[in-house]
Design brief:
The protein is α/β, with parallel strands linked by helices. Helix content is about 45%, strand content about 15%. Helix 8 (about 215-240) crosses helix 10, helix 8 (about 215-240) crosses helix 12 and helix 8 packs parallel to helix 13 (about 330-335). Belongs to the HIBADH-related family. L-threonate dehydrogenase subfamily.
Length: about 350
């Protein structure tokens, strides 16, 4: 098994959040886009791959824009018309369906939300697998169960296609800056073909193994910690407010203390601004922590702390906050304790 980590660029300070529309990335689209059957593409003979990005939400749009700005030929695709328009406004091009995109690309990133969307994008009526040329590469970035990643890789291999199981992390701002962390596994051939794309989109690439499933396993470890840290941050800030502390002072002190975490530092500003515009929605962590729970159950591995965080996100979803930013989990504590949370200065926060 290969287990390498390589840093592509020197690390920068964390970026502030970026607002982006989304389609396959997490928001319901108002309309589907349609086009007729597409022929199979020819794999480019050039050294620079033609890249497709399916799912132009906060992460996908940022990634597609970063790739485009670094000189790669990029075609986007999203069921939300507004997401495609946003990418086109940066100088990118959009295809109407995954199949149309596949006819123009030899490397395709799938940056959608869930397993159902991944399977539809790959194997649906207008899916990638029907139109990509043999030898083309799918870089699967969505958070899915490791067992599903393994099955997807096998199905694509049957069609002569490569797959890199490559979940991403870092948030929308790092996606836009081309400084994501990538947890990847796949064949040496897949890594070789993905090289120019990973160079343009990632600050660091963790090369974890030679087959799909390993990257997704690592992403579940990350999502367990991320979800727990978001809930812990919400609970800590809520307790501070309940004790009469000013929330901005809580943020200032904790970010300079041992209790700090990346999620505390990144998410609490959303609470302070009273702005719950979704970058990563509550619904995402309901999904991801459910995958953690199911994977633990299959392995007879208890995950009680993750289960507690899942219940808080589920409560937030049940209270109507599912499509808000995941920092909105603090509103569960607000409802239970009656604390006053900061409001958006312009009155536009969710």
């Amino acid at each position: 098994m290969i287990a390498l980590t390589y840093r592509i660029r020197p690390a920068l300070k964390r970026h502030r959040k970026l607002r982006s529309p989304s389609g396959w990335s997490g928001q319901n689209a108002s309309a589907n886009r349609h086009i007729g059957k597409q022929g199979r593409a020819a794999v480019s003979d050039g050294t620079t791959p033609r890249v497709g990005v399916i799912g132009l939400g906060a992460m996908g749009l940022g990634t597609a824009t970063a790739l485009h700005e670094r000189g790669l030929t990029v075609v986007g695709c999203d069921v939300a018309e507004s997401a495609c328009r946003a990418f086109e406004a940066t100088g990118g091009r959009c295809a109407a369906t995954p199949a149309e995109l596949a006819a123009q690309c030899d490397v395709v990133l799938v940056v959608v939300v869930n397993a159902a969307q991944v399977e539809q994008v790959l194997f649906g009526e207008s899916g990638l697998a029907h139109a990509l040329a043999p030898g083309a590469l799918v870089i699967q970035c969505a958070t899915v169960a490791p067992s599903l990643a393994e099955r997807l890789g096998a199905r694509l291999a049957e069609r002569g296609l490569l797959m890199l199981d490559a979940p991403i992390s870092g948030g929308a701002a790092k996606a836009r800056a081309g400084r994501l962390s990538v947890m990847a596994s796949g064949s040496a051939e897949a890594f070789d073909k993905a090289g120019p794309v990973l160079d343009a989109m990632a600050e660091i690439v963790h090369r974890l193994g030679d087959s799909p499933g390993i990257g997704s396993s690592m992403k579940l470890v990350n999502q367990l910690l991320a979800g727990v840290h978001i809930v812990a941050a919400a609970e800590a800030v809520a307790l501070g407010i309940r004790m009469g502390l000013e929330p901005r002072r809580v943020y200032e002190v904790i970010t300079q203390s041992a209790g700090n975490s990346w999620m505390f530092e990144n998410r609490v500003p959303h609470v302070l601004e009273g702005d719950y515009t979704p970058l990563s929605a509550v619904d995402i962590f309901v999904k991801d922590l459910n995958i953690v729970h199911e994977t633990g159950r299959e392995l007879a591995m208890p995950t009680p702390v993750a289960a507690s965080a899942l219940q808080q996100f589920t409560a937030a979803k049940g209270a109507g906050f599912g499509r808000e930013d995941d920092a909105a989990v603090i509103k569960v504590y607000q409802r239970l304790s009656g604390i006053a949370l900061p409001e958006a200065a312009n009155g536009e926060g969710a």
